[in-house]
Amino acid sequence: MKDTILAISGRPGLFRLVAQGRGNIIVENIDETKKRFAVGQRERVTSLNDISMYSDDDDVSLMKIFATICEKNGAKPSPLAHNKATDAELRKFMEEALPNYDRDRVRVSDMRKLLQWYNILAANGITDFVSEETEKGEE
To answer: Do 59 and 40 share a structural domain?
Structure first.
């Protein structure tokens, strides 16, 4: 699941990898529209599994942060809206999700994007963020 959820630079929302073609990929919106389209080689596509956030110790995988938020919210979307939250609310949200985040390098816009992506995933029933194999491998 984690490798097939994608963020595409310049496009709002998240996408699921459907198929790979010659020189492009086919993606589908993760929302109620389920609209499919081709993404060319020139667009910057990133798997959510490859994204991490700065912390005081070491970078933390986005999936681990999503798992923490999911646990705190009972696998439901956060009541906080990414586009209406104040900077103070976002900082409080971030402290709950990742208490030791690097306050110098993690910007409010990063926190907004984290909240937006979590709410998209949770609203569409995607809540299996950290697999059992990953947890065992890290212990």
So the answer is: no
Angle between helices 108-123 and 62-73 (to 10 degrees): 60
| pTM (2 d.p.) | 0.86
Expressed as residue numbers, the domain containing 21 is 2-48
Ordered alpha helix ranges (H), 20-131: 62-73, 87-97, 108-123
- Number of structural domains (the chain) is 2
Taking every pair of Cα atoms in the chain, the longest distance, rounded to a whole number of angstroms, is 46
Residue 131's pLDDT is 64
82 shares its domain with 42 = no
Q: What is the CATH number of the domain that holds 24?
A: 2.30.30.730
Helix 87-97 × helix 62-73 angle, to 10° = 100
Say how far apart CA 26 and CA 39 lie, in whole Å: 6
Query: Is the pLDDT score of 3 beyond 60?
Result: yes
Q: What is the pLDDT of residues 55-98, one digit of tens each?
A: 998 999 999 999 999 999 988 999 999 989 999 999 999 999 99
